[in-house]
Design brief:
Elements lengths: L9 H64 L1 H8 L8 E8 L2 E8 L15 H81 L6
Antiparallel strand pairs: 1-2
Helix pairs in contact: 1-2, 1-3
Length: 210
């Protein structure tokens, strides 16, 4: 049996009803937030899957081109030329808010592919491998951005779900039970007051003279 630590008064009844409305509104907002976050996360998961497929295919093509370059040019010469390729470019990590969740956005300077070697020193297989490995690096940046965003959204969904469950399973039922308890006590008190007043009126009513 529930034990209530609240005085059953009309003021507390109004207060409990207002708290119930506030909790129900909070649950609705959390439920909407959770829905938006899940939709956003699922869309990013699809993007991550597509990026991973592109990385796998590009890797396969790049390694085939590199293998052909090693065969036609010699692995030592290929390694020497590889040292002259452009190094890692600087990047910026910016943030975008999704329902209050800060997800990363990686910004890389978009510059055309250039080399420090003359094309007459290479063959098409080496050039293809160099271009494709550069593309892989760009795709990996994008995948890291998306996967980090998915992780952050998943953590926020878990937190939102926990708060929504606390309202739905604990707070809202508690307020509903409290309102029912106060309402029943007040109704019982009104009935008792009504019957008490009726008895008082019966006693004070003058008797008819015979």
């Amino acid at each position: 049996m529930a034990v209530y630590k609240i005085t059953p008064t009309k003021a507390n009844l109004i207060k409990s009803k207002n708290s119930l409305k506030f909790a129900q509104k909070g649950y609705e907002l959390l439920d909407k937030k959770r829905t938006v976050l899940i939709r956003e996360m699922m869309a990013l998961i699809d993007v991550a899957s597509e990026l991973q497929d592109r990385i796998d295919k590009t890797f396969a093509q790049a390694y085939e081109a590199l293998k052909l370059a090693n065969i036609t040019m010699g692995s030592e010469y290929v390694e020497e030329l590889a040292q002259s390729l452009a190094k890692e470019r600087d990047y910026q990590v910016l943030f975008k808010s999704v329902m209050g969740v800060e997800v990363p956005r990686i910004r890389i300077e978009d510059v055309p592919f250039t080399t420090e070697y003359g094309f007459f020193r290479t063959n098409p297989a080496f050039d293809k491998a160099a271009i494709q490995f550069g593309e892989i690096r760009r795709l990996i940046y994008q995948l890291a951005e998306v996967e980090n965003s998915v992780y952050k959204l998943a953590m926020e969904i878990k937190k939102t779900q926990k708060r929504a469950n606390a309202l739905d399973k604990i707070q809202i039922p508690r307020y509903q039970s409290t309102i029912k308890y106060i309402d029943e006590v007040l109704q019982e008190k009104e009935r008792e007051d009504f019957f008490r007043l009726k008895r008082v009126k019966g006693k004070t009513k003058p008797k008819k003279k015979v």
